[in-house]
Amino acid sequence: MPIKNYLTPEEKLELQQHLKSHEHPDIRERILILLLRNDGKTQQEIADFIGCSPRKVAYWCMHGDPSRLDSLIDGRMKGNHHKATDQYINLLLEIIEKDPQEFGYEFGTWTAQRLATYLEQETGISLSGSQVRRILKSKKYVYLWAKYSLEDKQDPEKRKLFKAKLDEYLRITKESPDRLQVWFWDESGFSFKVVRRRIWTEKGSRKKVSGRRRKGSFSVMGGIRFSDKKRVVDFIKKGTGDSFFSVLKGFYSEVKYEWAGEDKNINDFEKLGPKIVIILDNASIHKRKDILEKIEQEMPNLILEFLPTYSPDYNLIELVWHSAKEFIANRLFKSIEELEALVNKLLNEGQLVISWGRNIKNKGNAVDAI
Which among 86, 34, 88 has a CA at the least distance from the CA of 56? Predict the structure, then answer.
């Protein structure tokens, strides 16, 4: 049975004042429960009016003391050591930018749980890993693979000097492509891969896919011209100094015939044709003494410019390899010949469309169109 007018006038007036002014909506709701009960409403009527459960109304009719407002405060409102303070959050954002080894840990990366453990030691505030994760997400942090950096192995001064030289080459080829061509050169490999694919299947069952390992691979070698992004790529059995020379000689011949066209004498290429700058890495197959001597003798218009060590970000052809492998990823090939045919279409027949403005994370550095 409801108890009508059980509040004293003073209690009723004080509750009415707090109903209008209290900052917490839950407290205002509980005050309203007591006032409606004082008006003789049943618990079900109060629940229907407020839009809550009868169980909630019954609880606060039993535990709410109209003479003590703090009796309407539950444990969640009182605050506890599980609540992150501004100081905690600021320290979290500071620590996450530092290497764990600076604090004596053997592991190399922070996880949410490791951060929670460390910060509890420092602040006395105990949070779970999931709570720390939510804080980081609210601060626009995401958990991604870190970029593999080569900066600690690079020589900044050598990179600076090479970049200046490369910029000058590119300036000249833009202004006078008939005088100078810049090509970026490298090797890469393609192979079958065993890929476990997600597929649609009826709930409660799982389709079977072949787990047979498929063998087969091949290598390619070639270059891309900076001015028009023309690509010349050959398939090779193995990356050796001899294969490097052979592919380079074929490439040199193709450039000569392209220059001669229908109105020039190909024999005049060494005298009147453009210089061909080849940007390539320091692989041993590129620097064999006998090969370099043969290149100088047989391909006098070639200029080999070797990248600074650990600087693949200066080699534009890395973007070509990356884009080609991205295109064929997760495709199923019946034979290695079928894969070769597609790679040839992509690299030599212009079917590979590349977004030259993009950056890729390749071998530790961002590669773009320079």
Answer: 34
Domains of the chain: 9-77 (no CATH), 86-138 (no CATH), 152-367 (3.30.420.10)
Task: Return d(Cα 56, Cα 63) in angstroms, integer.
Answer: 11
CB 322 within 8 A of CB 362: yes
As a whole number of angstroms, the distance between CA 150 and CA 96 comes to 21
Q: How far apart are the C-alpha atoms of 137 and 340, rounded to whole Å? A: 44
Of the candidates 85, 62, 60, the residue with the CA atom closest to the CA atom of residue 74: 60
For residue 350, what are the CA distances in angstroms to 168, 230, 345?
Answer: 28, 8, 7
What tokens were used for 128?
A: 């779970």
pLDDT value for 216: 79
User: What is the per-residue pLDDT for 226?
Assistant: 95
- C-beta separation of 15 from 66 below 8 A: yes
pLDDT at 140: 86
Q: How far is CA 144 from the centre of its chain?
A: 6
- Residue 362's pLDDT is 43
Residues facing residue 279 across a β-bridge = 184, 305
Buried-exposed string 299-335: b where 16+ CB fall within 10 A, e elsewhere:
bebbebeebbebbbbbbbbbbbbbbbbeeeeeeeeee
DSSP code of residue 233: E
Axis crossing angle, helix 25-38 with helix 54-63, rounded to the nearest 10: 80
pLDDT for the residue 347: 92
Count the Cβ atoms, other than its own, within 10 Å of residue 237.
Answer: 8
Ranges in the chain, pLDDT < 50: 80-81, 194, 361-370
